[in-house]
Amino acid sequence: MTQIVRTPHEGPRAASAKRPGRSAVSRRSVTLITGCVLSGMILLLALVSLFWTPYAPDDTSGGRLTGPGAGHLLGTDKLGRDLFTQLMTGSRIAVEAGLGSVLIAAVAGVTLGVLAAFAQGWLDDTLSAFLDILIAFPTLLLAMLIVAARSATLGSAVLAIGLAQSAVVARVVRILVKRVLAQDYITAARTSGTSWPRIVAGHVLPNIWPTLVVNLALQFGLAVLAEAGLSYLGLGAPPPNASWGRMLQEAQATFTTAPAGALAPGVLLVLLVIGVNLVADGLRDTLDPATGRRRS
Amino acid sequence: MTLLDIRGLTIRTTDGHTLVDDLSLTIAGGERRGLIGESGSGKSLTTLAVLGLLPDGMTATGSIELAGTQIVGAREKHLTRVRGTDAAIVFQEPLTALDPLMRVGRQIAEPLARRRGLKGAELQRAVARALEQVRLPEPDRIARAFPHEISGGQRQRVALAMALACEPKLLIADEPTTALDVSVQADMLDLIDTLVRERDMAVLFVSHDLAVVARVTDRVLVMKDGRAVEEGDVREIVRRPREEYTAALVASARRLESALDTRRAR
């Protein structure tokens, strides 16, 4: 009676049978590596710009609109400032804008989203309505309000973008948390006497994390684009801090004669956004041990 | 000594449906009790109500006293203390009852660390012991595995180890073998039977399968549409069912058994 006969079903399985095939692994790492290289390149530019740039950002000694050449790698703008230098400081602004906004969006969004998921009745309705209004409110308008109330700085732009994005993040988090809370393992954790705060920290957040990270990376890309848009309109970082958005706007008039001024920041903007999205995609697969199984 | 005393338990949804109607049930310490009925008869809701875990939108009235604590209307803080130590549940579906992103060892360690204050190497030994006692081979390997890396039978053993971690006075097993292969089912039943006897633990074994319940319990309560239909000794009920519904359950179990016998005879 006490002797337990072990059936073949319960024997340890060959680990390889449960792992995704070789091709799936390599495709996944290609995505991750490409993304890391692209965003890493720009991160490197941003980091180096903290210590060294070829010229001072406001050095106008280069002569107006010189083309790419030995003295100036990408040429100069219409005020004679080195384009590559501006591109480097611009990448720092872009990374700062992305990280800052995502940080605000993550902290405010996750908090609001978890609260909304636990809220019931009128509180749930109120929170959801509030989030919907915030989402419907154009980021640009919010940014203009904040800039009017404070001043046109990178901080104002980041605050505006972060707040607008926190509503989007909160709505995603609310749904994700609700879905996790309906799972049996939450009930199982509760039957063993685990308190709600511990369940949220130990089970809910780790389980929404893979999806959340992908969403936050997406938000990072969108924040970089939004900051460029705000700078283009003169609502972002003030001169002499070159931002890619303002570079685009300044180079617009001379695009036919000196296309490098507009092309360079445009290309970097696209590369950064794509790079971050690829990193997100690769990360999702590596963070979720079950995804690999489902895909194989 | 009465461990669980349910009196006049009624569970209703907010829109007025009655799911469990005036159910009474007592379990003494060390008693092995079956709760049997078809799907939707309110068995699982009753077990959830015992730990104050009814889903949102359902309310319980009546009285549930578990080891001297009134569960109906109790505050979450009191319930947290009762759960896991006075009673624990093993659920039907072992895959969904384990957190897919947490290594098995950590899931077992969680209640051990919280309730017994174990740490470090001591905690790891306790986890290995918990896995060993449910007869899992290579406890160290299993502890490091994610739920999707082990088999269904192994997962259910892990769930059982989690439920037993804090030595509950009452183990509630809600169809613990239904999701398993037939060959694994028998092992699981024997295991539960052995562990419960060893610890002198009370069991509330919930199933729709009379044959399964008869194997691990002494007395059964038959439920239909949220009401208790019949209660008594397992053998008595199988031999002389008083209610038509119970007779139908017995007959269906018999039919299955005789079908198997004929096949074996061939």
UniProtKB/TrEMBL annotation, chain A:
InterPro entries per UniProt: BP-dependent_transpt_permease, MetI-like, MetI-like_sf
Transmembrane segments: 29-52, 97-118, 130-148, 154-173, 212-235, 255-280
Protein name in UniProt: ABC transporter permease
Domain of life: Bacteria
CDD domains: TM_PBP2
Region Disordered: start-end pairs: 1-22
Ranges for domain ABC transmembrane type-1: 91-280
Localisation: Cell membrane
Similarity comment: Belongs to the binding-protein-dependent transport system permease family.
Species assigned in the record: Streptomyces bluensis
Membrane-topology annotation of the record: Multi-pass membrane protein
UniProt-listed Pfam families: BPD_transp_1
Keywords of the record: Cell membrane, Membrane, Transmembrane, Transmembrane helix, Transport
